[in-house]
UniProtKB/TrEMBL annotation:
<comment type="similarity">
    <text>Belongs to the MoaD family.</text>
</comment>
<dbReference type="InterPro" id="IPR012675">
    <property type="entry name" value="Beta-grasp_dom_sf"/>
</dbReference>
<dbReference type="InterPro" id="IPR003749">
    <property type="entry name" value="ThiS/MoaD-like"/>
</dbReference>
<dbReference type="InterPro" id="IPR044672">
    <property type="entry name" value="MOCS2A"/>
</dbReference>
<dbReference type="GO" id="GO:0006777">
    <property type="term" value="P:Mo-molybdopterin cofactor biosynthetic process"/>
</dbReference>
<dbReference type="GO" id="GO:0000166">
    <property type="term" value="F:nucleotide binding"/>
</dbReference>
<protein>
    <recommendedName>
        <fullName>Molybdopterin synthase sulfur carrier subunit</fullName>
    </recommendedName>
</protein>
<dbReference type="Pfam" id="PF02597">
    <property type="entry name" value="ThiS"/>
</dbReference>
<keyword id="KW-0547">Nucleotide-binding</keyword>
<dbReference type="InterPro" id="IPR016155">
    <property type="entry name" value="Mopterin_synth/thiamin_S_b"/>
</dbReference>
<dbReference type="InterPro" id="IPR010038">
    <property type="entry name" value="MoaD_arc-typ"/>
</dbReference>
<dbReference type="GO" id="GO:1990133">
    <property type="term" value="C:molybdopterin adenylyltransferase complex"/>
</dbReference>
Amino acid sequence: MKVKVLYFAYCRDAVGRPSETVEVPAGVETVGALRDYLVGQGDPWKSGFESVKRIRFSVNQVMADETAAIKDGDEVAFFPPVTGG
């Protein structure tokens, strides 16, 4: 499955890009599992996500928690609790 991942604010700075399309392996079915998968890929995701104590998520532009299911073609956004324009 492929999902579009968007990064905002500090997350974007840490990862070094505003977005990417990620080929998600079988078994990664939630936002939290996607985050853990990315962290498992090493830097820049590992240092980017570990530096933020609390990351917020959205799926298809709707706020979600880490248990939210993801499916092929979804847009998942990661951002710190406070972001600016």
